[in-house]
Design brief:
The complex is a heterodimer of chains A (461) and B (130). With 461 residues, chain A is mainly α. In chain A, 76% of the residues lie in helices and 3% in strands. The two termini of chain A are 12 Å apart. Chain B is flat. The longest helix of chain B is centred in the first third of the chain and has 29 residues. Chain B is built from two helices and six strands. By secondary structure, chain B is an alpha+beta fold. Classes of the chains: A mainly alpha (461), B alpha+beta (130). Chains A and B meet through helix 3, helix 5, helix 10 and helix 12 of A and helix 1, strand 3 and strand 6 of B.
Chain lengths: 461, 130
């Protein structure tokens, strides 16, 4: 049974308000479904909660590396066994996001995210009580499966909680959670030092259960509420042709949307470089600027400060350009950031003066994460709301694939020609991605966005 | 009805999980290891670092331990490791010191070395009195 959720959609990126049919609201109440907002949310609560959950999610991932030395001694592990724990976790978490993307598009997303958080907390508890390498490995796999539910669910939710014209800014603020999660590393190390590594896993599990309850209590927004006209059945689930589309067909459909493919592939080049830099930056500071390991680690934190600034301002700039009538503003910001990143980081890697290097490095670091939020928002703009869970999966898989190989490639190149030359050799890839994005991206945005709008209207009863 | 059951199951999982997490963390925090090893002092002489490792028996019975020290990088990988004591007996509530020597390259000192990490295990021949 379908209930129509009437809505008024203005200009493509204009102000949109979605009103809920009272009959639909009554039906939802009868079946006990979570309340649906009667308009696109103005409250910051969902954004804050989902950002905090992301921080906990990331902190849980990083905790293992914080306690590596202690695990190694307790279980008498080899480096290979230790490394395989992280590698297998990443593999499971990446592959797992594909089925969860499908589930997110068909089920109540707040429930998927809440159960995900509760189950990954159970996996954290299991890690804390593991008495053998096998048990530890299984617990980490469980964590990988449960955590893979979160990226598709949170992405889909955020695109519906907030208006289209704020989408890029909201996604930028949300992504700050991933950097905040890094704080979990020193905090976890501190807990492990004082109370033991098992206590660290148990306390992080506690945080997970708390955020699971917070997500459960969030209202489930109407799918596409921010995009205009929607209809839904009584329990808040969508049954459009996209929601029911088989997984392979859906992923194929997504990759045929030019704005999606162009933005994913060109940005993958930036992700490839940034991931490698994250691993090798400390070594670069030590090797070429004579810093001690402690000073170099502190200097690397510039990357984190720059990452947060880039996420926030990239999002804001994307929205601002769109508000000024530049329909392709989001892709333009991302392309410009990737090109500017090359221009700033080439001198940062090439100069011998440490002061000059840092002066170039800080703004360069800002540009590294600047494209993420505008591009995520752009992809949401051109993809039907019932496909955004699967879009989240595609983004997660491609980002992981781009990030996976770069530390190794940089390492091999560094051995062959030196780290400085290796960084300077790979950096232009990011610029090439930016230039291709600037040429091919803008012409694709408007037709893709219109196609998405048409698909929304076609579903009107 | 189905929704209520769903809520009930979720609430139960979260409540039980919370209680278990607090209890396990508290139990772990108050638990004191039987033998605690710490690096008391370290001196570098060229490529060699000499470490004084303190072995503390926190229990009321004599313990025997194998003491090992590793030089680790930030990723938790061992750059070098050595057995400081293949078997050391420590009387109840007493401390003993052992020395360990670790050799690293200059590049490892400069770029990779994160910490010297001591560890201990009970003696394999059963002389541990637990």
């Amino acid at each position: 049974m379908y209930r129509c959720v009437d809505a008024v959609g203005k200009a493509p990126y204009g102000h949109q308000v979605t009103a809920v049919d009272p009959a639909a609201a009554d039906a939802r109440k009868r079946v006990g479904a979570p309340p649906s907002p009667s308009f696109v949310s103005a409250s910051r609560t969902p954004l804050v909660v989902l950002t905090v959950v992301l921080a906990v999610d990331q902190a849980d991932r990083y905790l293992l590396s914080a306690v590596f030395p202690l695990l190694k001694d307790d279980f008498r592990l080899s480096d290979t066994q230790l490394g395989s724990l992280s590698a297998a976790f990443l593999l499971v978490a990446t592959i797992g996001s594909v089925p969860f993307g499908v589930l997110v598009d068909r089920a109540v997303r707040t429930r998927v995210a809440a159960w995900g958080a509760a189950l990954w907390s159970v996996a954290m508890l299991a890690t804390g009580v593991a008495t053998s390498y096998g048990a530890l490995f299984l617990a980490r796999m469980g964590l990988g499966v449960a955590e893979s539910s979160y990226t598709p669910a949170s992405f889909s939710l955020l695109t519906d909680y907030y208006p289209v014209q704020e989408r890029s800014r909201v996604l930028g603020l949300y992504q700050v959670g991933s950097v905040l999660g890094f704080l979990g590393l020193p905090v976890g190390g501190l807990i492990a030092t004082h109370w033991g590594w098992r206590a660290a896993f148990h306390l992080y599990a506690l945080a997970g259960f708390v955020v699971a309850v917070l997500v459960w209590r969030l209202p489930e927004p109407v799918r596409g509420a921010a995009d205009g006209v929607r209809q839904q059945d009584a329990d808040g689930r969508r049954r459009s042709r996209f929601a029911a589309m088989p997984a392979l067909a859906a992923f194929g459909y997504l990759l045929r949307i030019r704005s999606v493919t162009i933005s994913l592939l060109t940005n993958a080049l930036a992700i490839f470089f940034t991931s490698g830099l994250g691993i090798w930056a400390t070594t670069f500071f030590v090797r070429y600027h004579g810093m001690s390991l402690a000073t170099a680690t502190a200097a690397t934190s510039i990357l984190a400060v720059g990452a947060i600034t880039g996420m926030v301002w990239g999002g804001r700039l994307g929205d601002r350009l769109v508000a000024r009538g530049r329909v392709a503003g989001r892709v333009e910001v991302a392309a410009a950031a990737q090109v500017a990143g090359v221009l700033l980081l080439v001198p940062a890697f090439a100069v011998h003066s440490t002061l000059l290097m840092l002066l170039f490095f800080l703004p360069g670091a800002v540009t590294l994460t600047m494209p993420n939020a505008p591009l995520a928002a752009l992809r949401a703009d051109v993809v039907h709301p019932d496909l955004r869970g699967r879009l989240g999966s595609v983004q997660a898989v491609l980002s992981a694939a781009a990030a996976a190989g770069s530390p190794l490639v940089l390492g091999v190149l560094s051995d062959a020609v030196g780290l400085r030359t290796a960084l300077l050799a790979l950096l232009p890839l990011m610029g090439v991605g930016g230039v291709v994005m600037a040429i091919l991206g803008p012409p694709a945005v408007e037709p893709d966005r219109r196609a998405m709008q048409r698909s929304l209207v076609e579903e009107l009863p | 009805m189905r929704h209520r059951l769903h809520v009930l199951v979720f609430a139960t999982v979260c409540a039980l999980g919370t209680v278990t997490a607090v209890a396990l963390a508290a139990a772990e925090a108050v638990r004191t290891p039987a033998v605690v090893v710490t690096v008391a002092h370290k001196t570098r002489q060229g490529d060699v670092t000499v470490l004084d490792v303190s072995v503390h028996n926190t229990t009321a019975v004599a313990r025997c331990a194998v003491v090992r020290v590793a030089a680790r990088d930030r990723g938790g990988h061992d750059l070098a490791a050595t057995t400081a004591a293949a078997s050391i007996s420590v009387p109840p509530h007493a401390r003993r010191a052992v020395a360990a020597r670790i050799t690293l390259t200059r590049r490892q000192y400069a770029e990779q070395l994160y910490a010297f990490v001591p560890s201990q295990h009970p003696c394999p021949d059963g002389r541990d009195d637990r």
